[in-house]
Specification:
With about 500 residues, this protein is of the alpha+beta class. The chain contains 12 helices and 13 strands. It has a 5-stranded antiparallel beta sheet with strand order 9-8-7-6-10.
C-alpha cells in the first residue's frame, strides 16, 4: 500500500515469510522511498538471482538492495512467468512512486487550492440562489396558496393546505442543503494529497449507497410492474362493475328477482370486494412486504380492527340487510324510531333522515333494523295505491250523523292535496258518553307533502263545521247548555 492505495498484490511469499508480514514491510519501505526525492524511480529494477527473480533498488554507487523475491510458486499463483511477474511488480511500484510525488509537489498543492476555492465559491453562490428561491416560493405560497381538489371534490382548503406545503418546502430546503454539503466534502478533500485517501473512502460510501439504491430499484422493477398491472386490472373491473350496476339502477338492464334500487348499493359492495381482492393480490409484490416492519404494521392494524370491529360489523351487516329487505330507499318518506322525514342517505353504517324542519337525523343501522319502519312512499310506488290520511273528531249527539259525514267529505274535497281516487270516506268509530267519534280517511296525492296536506285538511274541517254552525267537541269538550255561549267561532270578516 502507498498513500492508502493498493500498489501490488502478493499471493505467495518466498521462503518462510508470511504474505501479510511481507506486505507490511514492503509498504513501509515503499513509503520511505517515495518520500525521499533523491531516490529515483528508475532505480527500481529487476535482477535474476536463481532460483528467484528479484525486485530491487540500485543505489547511486551501484549497490543493489533486494526488496521482493519472486519464486516459482508466486508466478504460478498469477499464471505467468517469474520474470513477467517481477517486471509487473517493478512497473507498478515505479508508477505508484511517481504518482505519489506528483501529487505532492507545490504545483499540485497550488492547483488543488485554486480548485477548492472555485468549488467553495460555486457552493456559496448556490446557497444564495437556493435561499432566494425558497424565499420566493414561501412568499408565493403565502399570497397564492392553492387548494387541493380532485375533479369536483374539494379535499383541502387553501388555509389547510398552506402549512403542509410550507413544511414540504422546508424539508426540501434542508434535504438539498445536507445532500450538497455532504457531496462537497469528498470533492474538497480530493484536491489535497494528505486527504485524498479520506476522500476516496467517502466517495466509496456514496457510491455504495447509490449502487444499493440503484440495485434495489432495479430489483423492484418487476414487482412494481406486477403491482401496476394488478391495480390497472382492478380499476378496470371497478369501472365495469359500476357501469353495469348503474345500468341496473336506471332500469336499462333487468335481472329476474333483482330490484332496481339494489343496483347502486350492490355496486358499492362489489367495488369494495374487487378493491380488497386487488390489494390482496398486489400485497406480496410490495417491496419489503415480508419484513418485520410490515408485519408489525399488520399486527397493529389488526388489533385496531379487532377492537372496533364489533359495532362496525353490526352496523354494516344491518345496512346490508336493510338494502335487500327493501324497507325503504333514498327519497322515501318514512317514520323510523319516532323520526318522520325523507330518507336523505342510506350508507353502510347509518341512515340519514331529513325532517320537515330540514334537520338531518343520523340513525345507526343497528337501531334501524330493530325498529318498526313506516314507509309512506312504498305503497304508491309498488302497488300503485296512495297513502291515506286518517283524522278523528268528536261531535255531539244533537248533530245528525249524516250531516257530519257530509261536512267531513266536503272538507276533504276542498283540499288540493287530497286525491280524488279513491274517494274519501268516513267511519264512526265510537259512541262515547257525550259525543260520537268520526274518522275521516282521505288519500294523499304526494306523500312528500303529507304534513302540509294534513294541516290543510284540519283547517278545512274547521271551516266546514264553523260554516254549518256545528260544534266540534274534540278531543273531549263537554258543552253545558246553561246559558254558556256556543264554541262555534264567529265568521271571519
Amino acid at each position: 500500500m502507498l498513500d492508502g492505495q493498493r500498489v501490488i498484490e502478493i499471493k505467495v511469499a518466498a521462503g518462510a515469510q508470511t504474505t501479510a508480514g511481507l506486505a507490511g514491510r514492503l509498504s513501509s519501505s515503499l513509503k520511505r522511498l517515495a518520500d525521499d526525492n533523491t531516490r529515483l524511480v528508475d532505480q527500481i529494477i529487476v535482477v535474476e538471482e536463481p532460483p528467484y527473480w528479484m525486485v530491487a533498488e540500485k543505489k547511486a554507487d551501484g549497490e543493489i538492495v533486494p526488496g521482493l523475491a519472486v519464486d516459482e510458486r508466486a508466478a504460478q499463483s498469477f499464471g505467468i512467468s517469474q520474470r513477467a511477474l517481477a517486471e509487473q511488480y517493478r512497473d507498478q511500484l515505479r508508477a505508484a512512486v511517481q504518482q505519489y510525488r506528483s501529487r505532492r509537489n507545490p504545483e499540485a498543492w497550488l492547483r488543488g487550492t485554486m480548485l477548492a476555492l472555485l468549488v467553495l465559491g460555486s457552493y456559496v453562490l448556490w446557497l444564495i440562489a437556493q435561499r432566494r428561491l425558497i424565499q420566493r416560493l414561501r412568499q408565493r405560497l403565502y399570497n397564492h396558496s392553492p387548494g387541493l381538489q380532485v375533479g369536483s371534490i374539494r379535499l383541502m382548503e387553501p388555509d389547510q393546505l398552506r402549512p403542509v406545503l410550507l413544511w414540504c418546502v422546508t424539508l426540501l430546503n434542508w434535504t438539498l442543503l445536507l445532500l450538497i454539503s455532504y457531496l462537497l466534502i469528498p470533492l474538497l478533500l480530493g484536491f489535497f494529497p494528505p486527504t485524498q485517501v479520506l476522500a476516496a473512502g467517502l466517495r466509496g460510501q456514496i457510491l455504495a449507497v447509490v449502487r444499493g439504491l440503484g440495485s434495489a430499484v432495479f430489483e423492484a422493477i418487476p414487482s412494481l410492474l406486477a403491482i401496476a398491472v394488478i391495480l390497472a386490472f382492478t380499476a378496470l373491473l371497478v369501472r365495469a362493475s359500476n357501469s353495469w350496476f348503474r345500468a341496473l339502477d336506471h332500469g336499462r338492464v333487468r335481472l329476474p328477482g333483482f330490484y332496481p334500487e339494489w343496483g347502486r348499493p350492490t355496486g358499492r359492495i362489489a367495488a369494495v370486494l374487487i378493491v380488497m381482492a386487488g390489494l390482496v393480490a398486489a400485497y406480496p409484490y410490495v417491496p419489503g412486504a415480508g419484513s418485520r416492519t410490515f408485519q408489525g404494521a399488520g399486527l397493529f392494524f389488526g388489533l385496531l380492527a379487532a377492537l372496533g370491529s364489533s359495532a362496525v360489523a353490526t352496523n354494516v351487516i344491518s345496512g346490508v340487510m336493510l338494502i335487500y329487505t327493501r324497507g325503504f330507499r333514498e327519497g322515501d318518506r318514512v317514520e323510523i324510531n319516532g323520526v318522520v322525514g325523507t330518507v336523505q342517505d342510506r350508507a353502510m353504517l347509518v341512515t340519514r333522515i331529513r325532517t320537515p324542519r330540514n334537520e338531518v337525523v343520523s340513525i345507526p343501522n343497528a337501531t334501524v333494523i330493530g325498529a318498526s319502519i313506516v314507509n309512506y312512499s312504498l305503497a304508491s310506488r309498488e302497488i300503485n295505491q296512495p297513502v291515506a290520511i286518517a283524522t278523528t273528531i268528536t261531535i255531539g249527539y244533537d248533530v245528525p250523523w249524516r250531516q257530519v259525514h257530509t261536512l267531513l267529505l266536503d272538507a276533504a274535497k276542498a283540499v288540493n292535496g287530497i286525491a280524488p281516487e279513491p274517494e274519501p270516506f268516513v267511519l264512526q268509530t265510537s259512541l262515547n258518553d257525550f259525543h260520537v267519534s268520526y274518522e275521516l280517511n282521505a288519500a294523499v296525492q304526494d306523500t312528500r307533502f303529507y304534513r302540509e296536506t294534513l294541516s290543510d285538511l284540519l283547517g278545512s274541517i274547521q271551516d266546514q263545521f264553523a260554516a254549518a254552525d256545528v260544534e266540534i267537541l274534540s278531543p273531549g269538550y263537554h258543552a253545558v247548555r246553561n246559558g254558556n255561549r256556543s264554541t262555534v267561532p264567529r265568521p271571519h270578516p
